[in-house]
Amino acid sequence: xxxxxxxxxxxxxxxxxxxxxxxxxxxxxxxxxxxxxxxxxxxxxxxxxxxxxxxxxxxxxxxxxxxxxxxxxxxxxxxxxxxxxxxxxxxxxxxxxxxxxxxxxxxxxxxxxxxxxxxxxxxxxxxxxxxxxxxxxxxxxxxxxxxxxxxxxxxxxxxxxxxxxxxxxxxxxxxxxxxxxxxxxxxxxxxxxxxxxxxxxxxxxxxxxxxxxxxxxxxxxxxxxxxxxxxxxxxxxxxxxxxxxxxxxxxxxxxxxxxxxxxxxxxxxxxxxxxxxxxxxxxxxxxxxxxxxxxxxxxxxxxxxxxxxxxxxxxxxxxxxxxxxxxxxxxxxxxxxxxxxxxxxxxxxxxxxxxxxxxxxxxxxxxxxxxxxxxxxxxxxxxxxxxxxxxxxxxxxxxxxxxxxxxxxxxxxxxxxxxxxxxxx
Length: 425
What we know:
This protein is of the alpha+beta class. The chain has helices at residues 2-20, 36-51, 97-110, 154-158, 172-180, 194-202, 219-231, 235-247, 310-321, 334-340, 364-367, 410-420, and strands spanning 24-25, 57-64, 67-78, 83-84, 91-92, 131-137, 142-147, 268-270, 276-278, 307-308, 325-326, 329-330, 354-355, 360-361, 377-381, 385-390, 395-400, 403-404. A hairpin with a 3-residue loop joins strand 15 (377-381) and strand 16 (385-390).
């Protein structure tokens, strides 16, 4: 009998541990040290931002200790019809795709398929013997180059220190050179394959010497191509089988299924007079329209292509806070998560903070400027989506709008302050 009781106790504890790996709704916010009353400030302020015309609407999620304490949408999906925004609506998350692609690379690293300091040319030959931009003539877009001092590595792609720039939203030099060579920022869905496009990119000059500084660019699109080349699967298949299905992320897609297109939120544009209007075409200086997630395509941008919900992305972040474990699956080892969320750029300047493998990481200096703890990792997307994961507070914050050209970007920091002020333990 005693043995049976011991075994039963172990099984019960094992069940509790498995349950604790997954996100669930808190019985009350106070259960995990959050004040219900203080959370009401978020409702009040987000509603005020809508009333003032600063945004049409927004969705937000707060998780603490694996428990959901706030999951709401406030405002409108359609300002004309006053159709309300819903908390399970699907948002274009743009550069929030980058963290998921970075995890895919780490999965291949843990599979023994690559090393982080491998040269990119080992897998995509056009990246061998690269050059670096020297002089650029803006009048006729001609340029001269010098040899790169070394080959770029996978680690430098993960840290945006490779020297690659961005197409359409980068520097004038990068915009010009990439446009002439039909290099996409990731939203346009041409007939070219990802490997063809990235191979062309490899023949073009870097914007600076590898490892010299942080330049936000097409690094993660190259990582996505590496995933395809090394795994033998396209990025859509790899994400689905290796990340989304194990985590239960049911609403995150490159190609939005037809039955979910009605849940894609409207994208708004702030005009010069401050008024909000639905965006129509040419978003982010590209040929893409806001409907791009609904257009079936096979060019999968590892840097910008996904759409998702606040809950799905919260689950992804909770997996990382769980040291790589979620839903009974050890997706990544705890040391892989440690690498991803450690300073990987040394003394390279990135303001008050640092950068890991796919994430901005709040440093001790940065933590002195915000309520987020040192070690918090984060990023966002061009269509006004943001996230933070704080390992010390065991807290996930996700705040989504769908807006271009907004002059009220400070609501992002205001939301973060509102979330942290709700902690009472």
